[in-house]
Amino acid sequence: MAGALAEFRHCQTRGHGIHSLAHTHMNGLLYRGFLHNRLSLLRGIVWMSLVGILGAMGQETGSPTGAKPNSNDASVTGLKNARVITLAIPAPRGQILDREGEPFAQNRVTYRLALQFPQFENASEEFVVAWARKRLEELKAIHPKSADKSDADLWAHYQFRRWLPLYLSGFITGSNATALAKKLDDRDDIVLQPVYSRYYPGASMAAHIIGYTGSAGKLPTGPINFNEPLWEVTEGKAGLEKIYDTQLSGTPGVKRILYNNDGIKLQEEIVKRPVAGGNVVMTLNRRWQERAESVLRNGCQRGALVVIDVTTGEVLAMASRPTFDLMEFVGGISTTRFKELNEDPAAPMFGRAFSAEYPPASTFKSVVALAALADETITEQSTVYAPAFLQFPGHKVRNASGAAEGSIAVKYALARSCNTWFALVGIDCGPTNFLAMARRVGYGEKTGLPLIGEAAGLIPTNEWMISQHKRRFMNGDTANMAIGQGVLLSTPLQVAQGMAGIANGEALPKLQMIRQVQDSKGRVVFQTLPEVRKDLGVPESAYLAVHKGMSDVVNSNYGTGRSAGLSWTTLCGKTGTAQWGPASKNQRLAWFAGFLPYENPRFAFAVIYEGRPGQIVSGGRYAAPMVKAFFNPLRDEIEEIIAAPKKALVIDENGNVVAESDEVIRAIPVEPEIDRDGIPRAVPIIEESMNEFTEDISEEEMTNTDEEPADAGIQRAIPVPDAEETGDEIEITPE
């Protein structure tokens, strides 16, 4: 058993990082080759491990204590206790991997304690139960967590299933299994049965995306059925484990065992080998995901962070806080614990990054600016007078500073997050125009990613206003929406997607979270390529003006997001602060969203920070520093990705550089191998191992946090139209 465990662990070792974010098409082929090489090795080792497991089980279910062979070993016909048992061998579940081959979900060998009955001659129920009770007491002494069984259960198992082990524990791993094996020594009545189970190396990492598995059905308790499983089969219950359950599940094998009338095992054969499930390869970068979750742990009690590749639409990191430990679900979670998780006021099982709907607050001003520039309501140079406040029926909109900003243009208005300016420009542009632009950059509808529980947000129409509020858009409604409040709702994923569209300028990329799906032989059966979701149809001058304004938010001496500034590249962003939830909670949230670098944007992002009731927060003080803490440690990697293409060097036959060419170095495409069945095979390559994951950031890096927010009940982001906004933004004050 120890050998099987070692082999199986070896087969699940980490892959080697080979895929640079900067080489989307060429390295996609190389990446598939890497995984093909890796999985070819894994397939052989997984099967050897499985044979080891089944062999160990066969040894442990061999001749029961006290049983003797008789002269009828060669035939089972007409014998009361002889059996030919045909069992299904559950297939190893496929892995869920990051873009570099690092596992988010895989399998490992674990053990379960079991009672193995011998074949008694004319034994009574009383005798069998007494025999079993004695061993259960002995087992409790060495493993107190072992399960209790009723007398009826013990007798029924002996009557109908004594050839098979009666499981008495959950999964036991590592040193605990080793210690128990020593205590059990060579016993054949209490045994450790090796099985494989799901393993999540990152525990809580990306838990809301990965999901978990659970039992597909309990083992039978009556007579042994033809082809029933050797152990409980699992199936996906949440997240990608559920969405891709068919691809991950594999095909079970068949095992046949022959017992004579005395319970002696005469023959054991594997009639059909199980076929492992396929692998699902994500776009997430595990190192970046770990970094995002570390930033959230140190920067907030509740929040979310999303990072997207602007050129490909690939989601590179998507983290929510708080989260939960996926390993609690392996082997089954208790009803009590599951209820605790669901009723926790912090809602750890709620994926805030894509399920929570918040008012986008002042991050939405970038959308309004783009719409106003695109339809020529304003130009980059035109100015609009921004008073200290604007009066509307029932409420007043004013600047956070309480002062007028004067006649200002769009870039300065973005940098200062001037609310009265955007309210006036929004009214002049019209809600139909800027809400249509919001839909073009992805607001108001699901992204289409394989996510369970994704929210669609809300971008209203006049028809919606009539049905919900019995009126069409009024100027007060338009002013509120132009600053990202009122009835608008969005998820952090949608805000990051919108920033990707604004950063691109010409098109909204279709978001991707799955790079490819491979079958058990390592063949690519599904893969994604960059796609355009929507053409934005805006002039270059319009989106470049918004880029300049968002750069000033971070890099000017008057911007509201200066705390996000990076010394090694120009980051563009937009702060946001809003009140949300019931007014009685007096609860605010802080946003920071944008992209980098200013020239040729590559990465878009969004961060949200949920403040505790009564806490005064702002995007510049709480959310922006988390963006800086995320990107700074990745400097070398990102600088390599965003660097301009290098010039080609002309080398003579002796290896000397003789000239430098202005021709850009281009990758030579590699055609994938085509298998006989027409499925493209990955092209194998060899790569060096990747660097270790980054560690948790220190609290010193999080200079934005004055104090950690206390635990409080979660709010579901219902905006309050007449709410007051404070901090680096503006205020909406009721009359």
Structure description:
Helix 12 packs across helix 14 (419-429). Helix content is 31%, strand content 21%. It has 735 residues and is an alpha+beta fold. It is elongated. It folds into three domains: 2-66 and 74-281, Penicillin-binding protein 2a (Domain 2) (Alpha-Beta Complex), CATH 3.90.1310.10; 286-644 and 693-734, DD-peptidase/beta-lactamase superfamily (Beta-lactamase, 3-Layer(aba) Sandwich), CATH 3.40.710.10; 647-681, no CATH class. The chain has 21 helices and 29 strands. The strands form nine sheets. Strands 2, 3, 4, 5, 11, 19 and 20 form a seven-stranded mixed beta sheet that branches. Strands 13-12-24-23-22 form a five-stranded antiparallel beta sheet, with helices on both faces. A four-stranded mixed beta sheet has the order 7-1-9-10, with no helix packed on it. A hairpin with a 5-residue loop joins strand 19 and strand 20.
